[in-house]
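subagent[fold] <- orchestrator: predict structure for attached chain, return C-alpha coordinates only, no commentary.
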Amino acid sequence: MGRLIVIEGLDGAGKRTLAAGLTERIRQGGGTVAHAAFPRYSADVHAELVAEALHGGHGDLGESVHGMAVLYALDRRDAAEALRADLAAHDVVLLDRYVASNAAYGAARLHQGADGEFVRWVRELEIERFAVPRPDLQLLLRVPADVAASRAEHRERTETRRRDNFESDSSLQQRCGAVYEGLAEIGWWSPWRVIDGAERPDYAELAAEITG
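subagent[fold] -> orchestrator:
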Protein backbone atom coordinates (compact mmCIF):
# COMPACT_ATOMS: atom_id res chain seq x y z
CA MET A 1 0.00 0.00 0.00
CA GLY A 2 1.32 3.42 -0.96
CA ARG A 3 1.57 6.53 1.16
CA LEU A 4 -0.92 9.38 0.83
CA ILE A 5 0.83 12.75 1.01
CA VAL A 6 -1.11 16.01 0.97
CA ILE A 7 0.31 19.43 0.10
CA GLU A 8 -1.60 22.31 1.67
CA GLY A 9 -1.14 26.07 1.64
CA LEU A 10 -2.48 29.38 0.42
CA ASP A 11 -3.13 30.08 -3.24
CA GLY A 12 0.28 30.93 -4.68
CA ALA A 13 2.21 29.12 -1.95
CA GLY A 14 4.00 26.91 -4.48
CA LYS A 15 2.13 23.63 -4.13
CA ARG A 16 2.52 22.61 -7.77
CA THR A 17 6.25 23.36 -7.70
CA LEU A 18 6.70 21.27 -4.55
CA ALA A 19 4.70 18.40 -6.06
CA ALA A 20 6.81 18.46 -9.22
CA GLY A 21 10.08 18.49 -7.28
CA LEU A 22 9.02 15.65 -5.00
CA THR A 23 7.77 13.60 -7.93
CA GLU A 24 11.06 13.92 -9.78
CA ARG A 25 13.07 12.95 -6.71
CA ILE A 26 10.88 9.95 -5.81
CA ARG A 27 11.01 8.64 -9.37
CA GLN A 28 14.77 9.07 -9.45
CA GLY A 29 14.85 6.76 -6.43
CA GLY A 30 12.81 4.15 -8.28
CA GLY A 31 9.43 4.94 -6.73
CA THR A 32 6.11 5.44 -8.49
CA VAL A 33 3.93 8.48 -7.96
CA ALA A 34 0.30 9.32 -8.76
CA HIS A 35 -1.23 12.79 -8.53
CA ALA A 36 -4.57 14.44 -7.93
CA ALA A 37 -5.61 18.03 -7.25
CA PHE A 38 -8.76 19.22 -5.53
CA PRO A 39 -11.18 20.54 -6.52
CA ARG A 40 -11.26 18.35 -9.64
CA TYR A 41 -12.80 21.02 -11.83
CA SER A 42 -12.69 19.01 -15.06
CA ALA A 43 -13.61 15.63 -13.59
CA ASP A 44 -16.51 16.04 -11.14
CA VAL A 45 -19.83 17.84 -11.38
CA HIS A 46 -19.61 19.05 -7.77
CA ALA A 47 -16.27 20.71 -8.55
CA GLU A 48 -17.74 22.23 -11.71
CA LEU A 49 -20.47 23.83 -9.60
CA VAL A 50 -17.82 25.09 -7.18
CA ALA A 51 -15.90 26.77 -10.01
CA GLU A 52 -19.02 28.42 -11.34
CA ALA A 53 -20.11 29.62 -7.91
CA LEU A 54 -16.64 31.03 -7.18
CA HIS A 55 -17.00 33.23 -10.24
CA GLY A 56 -20.48 34.47 -9.35
CA GLY A 57 -22.69 31.74 -10.78
CA HIS A 58 -25.69 29.99 -9.20
CA GLY A 59 -27.11 32.97 -7.35
CA ASP A 60 -25.97 33.19 -3.74
CA LEU A 61 -24.43 29.69 -3.61
CA GLY A 62 -20.93 31.11 -3.34
CA GLU A 63 -21.95 33.03 -0.22
CA SER A 64 -22.96 29.84 1.61
CA VAL A 65 -19.94 28.58 3.53
CA HIS A 66 -21.54 25.25 4.38
CA GLY A 67 -23.09 24.84 0.93
CA MET A 68 -19.75 25.28 -0.81
CA ALA A 69 -18.05 23.01 1.74
CA VAL A 70 -20.54 20.22 0.98
CA LEU A 71 -19.70 20.47 -2.75
CA TYR A 72 -15.97 20.29 -2.00
CA ALA A 73 -16.61 17.28 0.26
CA LEU A 74 -18.73 15.48 -2.34
CA ASP A 75 -15.94 15.91 -4.89
CA ARG A 76 -13.56 14.08 -2.55
CA ARG A 77 -16.12 11.43 -1.67
CA ASP A 78 -16.52 10.74 -5.39
CA ALA A 79 -12.72 10.48 -5.75
CA ALA A 80 -12.18 8.17 -2.76
CA GLU A 81 -12.36 4.90 -4.70
CA ALA A 82 -9.86 6.14 -7.29
CA LEU A 83 -7.53 7.33 -4.53
CA ARG A 84 -7.60 3.89 -2.91
CA ALA A 85 -6.83 2.29 -6.27
CA ASP A 86 -3.88 4.65 -6.77
CA LEU A 87 -2.61 3.85 -3.28
CA ALA A 88 -2.73 0.15 -4.11
CA ALA A 89 -0.82 0.68 -7.36
CA HIS A 90 1.80 3.31 -6.44
CA ASP A 91 4.38 4.02 -3.78
CA VAL A 92 3.18 7.59 -3.23
CA VAL A 93 -0.01 9.48 -4.03
CA LEU A 94 0.49 13.25 -3.95
CA LEU A 95 -2.54 15.49 -3.47
CA ASP A 96 -2.69 19.22 -4.10
CA ARG A 97 -5.24 20.21 -1.43
CA TYR A 98 -7.49 17.84 0.49
CA VAL A 99 -9.85 17.94 3.48
CA ALA A 100 -7.80 20.48 5.44
CA SER A 101 -8.40 23.05 2.68
CA ASN A 102 -12.12 22.75 3.26
CA ALA A 103 -11.64 23.17 6.99
CA ALA A 104 -9.21 26.09 6.70
CA TYR A 105 -11.04 28.18 4.12
CA GLY A 106 -14.48 27.65 5.63
CA ALA A 107 -13.28 28.49 9.12
CA ALA A 108 -11.50 31.58 7.79
CA ARG A 109 -14.66 32.75 6.02
CA LEU A 110 -16.54 32.43 9.31
CA HIS A 111 -13.72 34.09 11.30
CA GLN A 112 -13.17 30.92 13.31
CA GLY A 113 -9.97 29.14 14.31
CA ALA A 114 -8.68 25.60 14.01
CA ASP A 115 -10.52 24.71 17.22
CA GLY A 116 -13.86 26.11 16.06
CA GLU A 117 -17.21 24.59 15.21
CA PHE A 118 -16.70 24.63 11.44
CA VAL A 119 -13.53 22.53 11.57
CA ARG A 120 -15.34 20.01 13.78
CA TRP A 121 -18.23 19.93 11.28
CA VAL A 122 -15.87 19.24 8.35
CA ARG A 123 -14.30 16.41 10.32
CA GLU A 124 -17.70 14.87 11.02
CA LEU A 125 -18.73 15.17 7.36
CA GLU A 126 -15.65 14.20 5.38
CA ILE A 127 -13.64 12.05 7.78
CA GLU A 128 -16.27 10.32 9.89
CA ARG A 129 -19.25 10.16 7.53
CA PHE A 130 -17.63 9.99 4.08
CA ALA A 131 -14.56 8.09 5.37
CA VAL A 132 -12.17 9.45 2.75
CA PRO A 133 -8.63 8.02 2.86
CA ARG A 134 -6.47 9.36 5.69
CA PRO A 135 -3.18 11.05 4.77
CA ASP A 136 0.09 9.62 6.03
CA LEU A 137 1.52 13.15 6.07
CA GLN A 138 0.24 16.67 5.40
CA LEU A 139 2.79 19.23 4.20
CA LEU A 140 1.96 22.87 4.92
CA LEU A 141 3.76 25.35 2.69
CA ARG A 142 4.09 28.42 4.90
CA VAL A 143 4.39 31.72 3.04
CA PRO A 144 3.27 35.25 3.99
CA ALA A 145 -0.13 36.06 2.54
CA ASP A 146 1.26 39.00 0.54
CA VAL A 147 3.91 36.77 -1.08
CA ALA A 148 1.31 34.15 -1.97
CA ALA A 149 -0.95 36.86 -3.41
CA SER A 150 1.87 38.24 -5.56
CA ARG A 151 2.57 34.78 -6.95
CA ALA A 152 -1.13 34.19 -7.64
CA GLU A 153 -1.34 37.52 -9.46
CA HIS A 154 1.67 36.59 -11.58
CA ARG A 155 0.10 33.23 -12.40
CA GLU A 156 -3.09 34.99 -13.41
CA ARG A 157 -1.18 37.21 -15.84
CA THR A 158 1.06 34.54 -17.34
CA GLU A 159 -1.39 31.63 -17.51
CA THR A 160 -4.53 33.62 -18.38
CA ARG A 161 -6.21 31.99 -15.39
CA ARG A 162 -8.59 34.37 -13.65
CA ARG A 163 -8.44 34.26 -9.86
CA ASP A 164 -11.66 33.33 -8.12
CA ASN A 165 -13.38 35.25 -5.31
CA PHE A 166 -11.43 33.45 -2.57
CA GLU A 167 -8.04 33.86 -4.22
CA SER A 168 -8.45 37.62 -4.63
CA ASP A 169 -9.59 38.26 -1.03
CA SER A 170 -6.37 39.19 0.80
CA SER A 171 -8.01 39.35 4.22
CA LEU A 172 -9.46 35.87 3.77
CA GLN A 173 -6.07 34.53 2.71
CA GLN A 174 -4.47 35.92 5.86
CA ARG A 175 -7.10 34.34 8.10
CA CYS A 176 -6.83 31.07 6.21
CA GLY A 177 -3.08 31.02 6.79
CA ALA A 178 -3.69 31.36 10.53
CA VAL A 179 -6.14 28.44 10.51
CA TYR A 180 -3.67 26.29 8.60
CA GLU A 181 -1.03 27.06 11.22
CA GLY A 182 -3.46 25.98 13.94
CA LEU A 183 -4.30 22.74 12.15
CA ALA A 184 -0.62 21.89 11.74
CA GLU A 185 0.11 22.74 15.36
CA ILE A 186 -2.48 20.31 16.70
CA GLY A 187 -1.67 17.60 14.14
CA TRP A 188 -5.21 17.66 12.79
CA TRP A 189 -6.22 14.21 11.50
CA SER A 190 -2.68 13.08 10.69
CA PRO A 191 0.96 14.14 11.14
CA TRP A 192 1.94 17.51 9.61
CA ARG A 193 5.21 19.03 8.54
CA VAL A 194 5.55 22.78 7.99
CA ILE A 195 7.82 23.85 5.12
CA ASP A 196 9.13 27.35 4.50
CA GLY A 197 7.62 28.16 1.13
CA ALA A 198 9.93 31.16 0.67
CA GLU A 199 12.97 28.89 0.35
CA ARG A 200 13.80 25.99 -1.93
CA PRO A 201 13.01 22.80 0.01
CA ASP A 202 15.40 19.90 0.36
CA TYR A 203 13.64 17.52 -2.02
CA ALA A 204 15.96 14.63 -1.21
CA GLU A 205 15.22 14.89 2.51
CA LEU A 206 11.48 15.23 1.96
CA ALA A 207 11.36 12.35 -0.49
CA ALA A 208 13.23 10.13 1.96
CA GLU A 209 10.78 11.04 4.73
CA ILE A 210 7.79 10.40 2.48
CA THR A 211 8.91 7.05 1.17
CA GLY A 212 10.04 5.88 4.60
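orchestrator: received. Logging for downstream: The domain at 3-211 is CATH 3.40.50.300 (Rossmann fold). Residues 15 and 116 are 26 Å apart (CA to CA).
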